[in-house]
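TASK: fixed-backbone design
INPUT:
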């Protein structure tokens, strides 16, 4: 079956955060696709909704089986049933881990620039953020890890947790096996546990695959909590469904207690239904077509910016539908640039400042939309940048 990703669906009036906040602008900011989900998920939810009773829900063996099937067939990682714990979302899981695995005043390490909510999950719970800033190669427009700084930060006995992003958001880096193994060995050496956010793992360039953090070694399995979900992959964030993969039984018990104490361990009546419909052979076929479409979008955006907006430089990426754009050729204040684009071009992007690291010189663009909206967004970016220059 050929899926129609060019279809434009009007989201106004649906209480969409992305579109309601835009107030008439073209929103290309929050990580939420303007593409309808896999039809199999729609049918499963419609069938469940037609029942007419929406009481408390539990999770059947099929929920576990769906995750196990998907990670084994798509990512070559065999998850055992006992390793899985339901949670309403990756962010609630991270916040629970911060509260359960650290004490107030301790350090939680993150690699910046990174998803801004990492900061919130740490600071709002009375812990200290420690940044291992990624090294930016301005000539190649790519990021790498500052290993000397990472060792220094992990060595501090006050650092007890690392929140890792795999693949990395916003750079789109897919970390290789050697990198994942080295991080795991360092964290074990310095008694630091790892929470690995792998929510963007399925949206990769055709022919490129991510490697689960816990899959590379016994050490990595022993020290880690992996957060996974179908929500970014299938554009169902509003369903609020995710899982934690925790091979170590002691760590798993702590996190089971954490998410239940925090009351984020019970989902709505559609949470399991969506997972079981998504993680199927047919869902995989839909995803493969989507990946091809999204990478065509990325190629169009990269080529357009290179040819027409010389003051902006795109970061090469193998993962996610989010494009990280270096705007240091025009400004060192991404907040100001984003405000200008909203006011003068009707275009809503993410300012990179909240991402930490060198993010104040970047903007993030969501490419997950029908091609007609992408082309409109690129034209608005061109016009807004031209006005900013003038």
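OUTPUT:
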């Amino acid at each position: 079956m050929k899926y129609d990703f060019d279809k434009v669906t009007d989201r106004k009036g649906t209480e969409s955060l992305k579109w309601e906040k835009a107030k008439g602008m073209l929103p290309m900011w929050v990580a939420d696709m303007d593409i309808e989900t896999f039809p199999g998920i729609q049918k499963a939810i419609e069938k469940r909704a037609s029942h007419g009773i929406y009481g408390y829900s539990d999770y059947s063996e099929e929920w576990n089986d769906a995750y196990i099937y998907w990670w084994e067939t798509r990512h070559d990682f065999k998850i055992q049933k006992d390793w899985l714990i339901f949670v309403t979302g990756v962010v609630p899981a991270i916040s629970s881990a911060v509260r359960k695995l650290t004490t107030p005043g301790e350090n939680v390490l993150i690699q910046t620039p990174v998803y801004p909510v990492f900061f919130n999950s740490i600071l709002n719970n009375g812990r200290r953020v420690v940044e291992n800033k990624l090294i930016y190669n301005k000539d190649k427009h790519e990021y790498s890890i500052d290993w000397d700084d990472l060792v220094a930060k992990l060595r501090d006995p006050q650092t007890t947790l690392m929140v890792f992003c795999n693949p990395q958001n916003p750079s789109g880096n897919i970390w290789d096996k050697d990198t994942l193994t080295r991080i795991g060995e360092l964290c074990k050496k310095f008694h630091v546990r790892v929470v690995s956010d792998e929510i963007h793992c399925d949206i990769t360039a055709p022919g490129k695959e991510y490697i689960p953090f816990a899959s590379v070694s016994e050490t990595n399995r022993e020290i880690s909590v992996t957060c996974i979900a179908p929500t970014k992959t299938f554009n169902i964030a509003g369903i609020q469904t995710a899982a934690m993969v925790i091979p170590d039984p002691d760590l798993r018990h702590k996190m089971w207690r954490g998410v239940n104490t925090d009351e984020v361990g019970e989902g709505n009546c559609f949470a399991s239904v969506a997972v079981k419909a998504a993680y199927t052979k047919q869902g995989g076929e839909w995803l493969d077509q989507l990946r091809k479409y999204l990478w065509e979008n990325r190629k169009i955006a990269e080529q357009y910016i290179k040819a027409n907006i010389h003051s902006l430089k795109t970061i090469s990426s193998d993962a996610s539908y989010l494009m990280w754009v270096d705007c240091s050729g025009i400004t060192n204040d991404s907040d100001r640039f984003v405000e200008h684009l909203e006011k003068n071009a009707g275009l809503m992007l993410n300012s990179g400042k909240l991402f930490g690291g060198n993010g104040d010189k970047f903007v993030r663009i969501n490419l997950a939309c029908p091609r007609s909206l992408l082309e409109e967004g690129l034209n608005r970016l061109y016009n807004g940048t031209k006005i900013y220059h003038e």
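COMMENT: DSSP finds 14 helices and 15 strands in the chain.
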